[in-house]
Design a protein that fits this description.
The structure is a single chain. By secondary structure, this protein is an alpha/beta fold. It has 4 domains: 37-165, 2-Layer Sandwich (Beta-Lactamase), CATH 3.30.450; 175-340, P-loop containing nucleotide triphosphate hydrolases (Rossmann fold); 343-429, Helicase, Ruva Protein, domain 3, CATH 1.10.8; 432-474. Helices cover 49% and strands 14% of the residues. The chain has a 5-stranded antiparallel β-sheet with strand order 2-1-5-4-3, sandwiched between helices. Strands 7-8-11-6-12 form a 5-stranded parallel β-sheet. A hairpin with an 8-residue loop joins strand 9 (291-292) and strand 10. Helix 6 crosses helix 7, helix 15 packs across helix 17 and helix 19 (432-451) crosses helix 20. It is elongated and about 100 Å long.
Length: 483
């Protein structure tokens, strides 16, 4: 009460006491709400110190919360008192983690850990949600439960899906890339021809591979060809194959082409703009009847496969210059997917940095970390080589940095200079209002992705809930739950 006595000398005593009692009741209600939850709730701080275990978590884990509050979860795990390794995984990856744990007598628990970040972007809390799903004794039933949970915890299951993609080197956090991968997932369910457009290094090959892996053809071959790497005179033979003696140096037995090799699977034709006009005609014919004829051959072969093409060139401009067939363009672009350059989807940069850092740490058996200052520099870099360039930069830093912590001083001066120049140019091109609007929108998007409801967003941002609703409408940030 010393603090209250001190405040009494400055403010009206009654108002101070009333405010203290009000805050006390709010805290008591919050404790009651957490303890009334059917799901287990297990909260730790950034150091792994246990702050709260609700009654449901006590029941699920068969523990007494009083014996564990204030202790480090790592030590308790090592001694076998509890199994909360998901907490350590969240602290390590700084990403949501979901696992299904099987305990004694077939008991199954769905555990989801979510990081809570402070204003500096550092983890301040890890909140674990635990649900007993023992009654779901079949995989199908478990999936149905996941679908039901997705309506309530859509953000958590979205993170699970993105983590699955990350295992295939696909990292997506920005709105722009999420649209790309959502479209790719939809089109994977059908056999439509897909045209991937975007600069070199944006991930067209990874997207094509994702479509194949999610399709009904996933057990078939995924054959890729980069037409820019093949001499123009050999493109037709590589694609369609040739009969023996078709040209000087040809095998006497002939050779099947990539179309035949991709039978019952997917053929990914990268840099399709580099295909000669004569070969374009044969591709167009295949799209019409699924039949090919080898070079110097006479026997038609019917091939069942899916075609995905990609280009980093402006095909419409090439059509105007008579370098690409218009009729082929429209047959290839049944489903066009434009992949934005990395500099236009900056929300992906930090997750990609962490992904590649973990990847190369495992590959080279390192335990390197990266400072926030170094991340700021890398975030500001223009990446004209897109994701491929970022990957190369991180590998270079992991391999060449002697210290365990990668700092600004380790980043090549050329990268630092280009990062500073790029951000200066961006600032010079935008008015103060545009800059503020952009920052405000990015903050709202991040808050929406983290908290999902306008009430939680308003509390974190320190504004009223109606203000959050108005701003979401202003920036067309949809699907936030107004509760």
């Amino acid at each position: 009460m010393d603090a209250i006595e001190h405040l009494k000398k400055i403010y009206e005593p009654d108002r101070v006491i009333q405010e203290y009692e009000r805050q006390k009741k709010i805290n008591e209600h919050l404790e009651d709400i957490i303890d009334s939850s059917y799901d287990g709730i297990f909260i730790c701080d950034k150091n792994g110190i246990i702050l709260k275990i609700n009654k449901a978590s006590e029941r699920i884990n068969k523990i007494d919360a009083k014996k564990f509050i204030g202790r480090n979860v790592k030590g308790l795990i090592s001694k076998g008192y509890i199994d909360q390794s998901v907490t350590l995984e969240v602290l390590k990856t700084k990403l949501p983690v979901t696992q299904i744990r099987e305990w004694e007598k077939g008991k199954k628990i769905l555990i989801t850990g979510n990081p809570i970040f402070d204003e500096k972007g550092e983890i301040s809390l890890v909140v674990m949600n635990e649900r007993d799903i023992t009654e779901l004794d079949k995989v199908k039933e478990e999936l149905e439960e996941s679908k039901a949970l997705s309506k309530r915890y859509s953000s958590e299951l979205s993170d699970i899906r993105m983590r699955e993609l990350e295992g295939k080197e696909i990292v997506s956090r920005s709105k722009e890339s999420l649209i790309v991968f959502e479209t790719a997932m939809k089109v994977s369910k059908v056999d439509s021809v897909v045209l991937l457009l975007g600069e070199s290094g944006v991930g067209k090959g990874l997207t094509a591979g994702l479509i194949h892996r999610l399709s009904s053809r996933k057990r078939g071959p995924f054959v890729t060809v980069n037409c820019s790497a093949i001499p123009e005179s050999l493109v037709e033979a590589e694609l369609f194959g040739y009969e023996g003696g078709a040209f000087t140096g040809a095998r006497l037995s002939g050779k099947p082409g990539l179309f035949e090799m991709a039978r019952n699977g997917t053929l990914f034709i990268d840099e399709v703009a580099d295909i000669p006009l004569g070969t374009q005609v044969k591709i167009l014919k295949f799209l019409e009847d699924n039949v090919i004829i080898r070079v110097a051959g006479t026997k038609p072969k019917k091939i069942d496969l899916r075609i995905i093409t990609a280009s980093n060139q402006d095909l419409k401009e090439m059509i105007k210059n008579k370098r690409f067939r218009e009729d082929l363009y429209y047959r290839l672009s049944v489903v066009p997917i434009v992949i934005p350059p990395l500099r236009e989807r900056r929300a992906d940069i930090s997750p990609l940095i962490n992904f590649f850092l973990n990847h190369f740490n495992k590959k080279y058996n390192f335990s390197k970390r990266i400072s926030s200052g170094a991340i700021d520099i890398l975030y500001s870099y223009p990446y004209l080589g897109n994701v491929r360039e970022l990957r190369n930069i991180i590998e270079n830093l992991v391999v060449l940095t002697d210290d365990d912590l990668i700092e600004v001083r380790h980043i090549p001066k050329e990268i630092c200079l280009k990062a500073n120049l790029y951000m200066e140019n961006q600032l010079n091109q935008a008015s103060l209002r545009e800059i503020l609007n952009k920052v405000e929108k990015e903050v709202l998007i991040k808050a929406f992705e983290e908290y999902k409801t306008t009430t939680k967003m308003a509390k974190v941002l320190g504004v009223s809930q109606p203000s959050v609703v108005r701003k979401l409408k202003q920036y067309r940030i949809r699907n936030a739950i107004q509760t």
